Amino acid sequence: MKCLKKSLAVLVAAFAICQFPLWNGAAEIWADTSQEQSVPPAERHGALQVKGTVLVDEKGETVRLQGMSTHGIAWFSEYINREAFRTLRDDWRVNCIRLAMYTEEYNGYCSGGNQEELKNLVKDGVRYATDLGMYVIIDWHILQDQDPNIHKAEAISFFHEMSSLYSEQKNVIYEICNEPNGSATWESVKRYAEEVIPVIRANDPDGMIIVGTPVWSQEIGQALASPLKYDNILYSLHFYAATHTDWLRERVEACASQGLPIFVSEFGTCDASGNGENRFDQSQKWMELLERYHISCCAWNLANKAESSSVIASGCQKTSGWSEEDLSESGKWLRNYFRQAGNQ
Questions:
Q1: Residue range(s) defining the domain that contains residue 321
Q2: Is residue 13 domain-resident?
Q3: How large is the average pLDDT for residues 322-330?
Q4: Quick check: bond before 301 cis, omega within 30?
Q5: Which residues sit opposite 67 in a β-bridge?
Q6: Tens digit of pLDDT for each residue in 280-301?
Q7: Which residues are part of the catalytic machinery?
Q8: What DSSP string runs through 143-162?
Q9: Strand extents, DSSP E, the chain
């Protein structure tokens, strides 16, 4: 009789799996060995809003996004896949993906790259993140172009299309200029933002927008002194732990304590070149500061490039399901940090 009952139980379980597969679009359930199954992050929190200096969800509860940024999608397109994002969500315990689309560099969106292919990669990334119940940042990744006004017309067209597509989605965030630098001033960035933001708002009135700040998104004090007059705006701060130490942390603390909403949309454990020595002691100090002020962050970068900031080991060809042995030194540290933080 016990054998019969056991056989019947196995048949019932098999039937249930066939009729109701575990992974099912935006309602997928993520599994974690440390707790019971739960609802994916974006499904649980819904649309986010900037309230004071923090993000809050639809229930008014504080939410902290923690995620990974891709490298340039024109060069490392293989990591834009559902299983890579699933690994980051379920194993790394991150709740956000940043899609970095370079504008000026080789095969960039405004420098000879195939614009339709690049937009399709962005759309694929948004779809995978949405299916997995994750938040996703569409990053207009200026760098060599320095001032975002150089390709302002292309940015306006791009964000008009993206905000038209995703106006009804609660998980999409728009980052309109990655790292203004060189000749870019806060006044020129504001002029650019004041033309791009209304284009997004016309389609997505409540969409959250991240705005870069001068000197590779470090001069956040200038944004504090002269902020944009829009709701749901975050100002980006970027750091690389081996280069940016107490002096930049002090700036972040001063600005956050005075009411500036900050999003660290890019950070690394190494130096500002994306290479060199990893400083995990300094990285830990940064994480403690971000936790204290509930500042969201995305680590750079999801790729196997032979540099310190890439989280996949340079010899690893796997594009998902990475074991610890598949990760770089920084990848191992970041995975461990995200898993311990567990901000889903």
A1: 60-341
A2: no
A3: 98
A4: yes
A5: 96, 298
A6: 999 999 999 999 999 999 999 9
A7: 179, 266
A8: STT-SGGGGHHHHHHHHHHH
A9: 49-51, 54-56, 62-63, 66-70, 96-102, 135-141, 172-175, 208-211, 233-240, 262-268, 296-302
